[in-house]
Design goal:
By secondary structure, the protein is α+β, with helices and mostly antiparallel strands. The protein has one helix at 73-102; strands at residues 5-10, 18-19, 23-28, 33-41, 45-49, 55-59, 63-71. The protein is rod-shaped and about 75 Å long. The mean pLDDT is 83.
């Protein structure tokens, strides 16, 4: 399932305010990644809760960017195709083995 997701950056304009997706990661200027649930952006901070339900507020000037996880159609199709290919190969090997022991 993890291979079917990618991370995309949420654009944050300097004075924009609004809701963030339910589950997002705030990446600080130093590289620290902070999970935020039910977050909102205000002109001066990102606020929300951590996964343990404690409240968090991160000043906007310390935020490098915000990431959200999204489903990748290409990766999902690849995973399904790979699974079908493995199942087909397994059935082919079993069938060939059964035919070779029948002779």
């Amino acid at each position: 399932m993890c291979a079917c997701h990618t991370w995309r950056t949420v654009p944050l304009t300097p004075q924009a305010a609004g809701r963030l997706p339910d589950h997002s990661w705030v990446v600080r200027v130093g590289g620290e990644r902070v999970p935020v649930e039910g977050g909102s952006a205000t002109p001066d901070s990102i606020i929300g809760t951590r996964p343990d339900r404690s409240r968090i507020a991160i000043p906007r000037d310390s935020v490098a960017y915000v990431e959200v996880r999204q489903v990748s159609a290409l990766r999902t199709a690849g995973a399904i195709s790979g699974g079908v290919a493995v199942a087909y190969a397994t059935l082919l090997i079993v069938a060939l083995a059964a035919l070779s022991t029948a002779w």
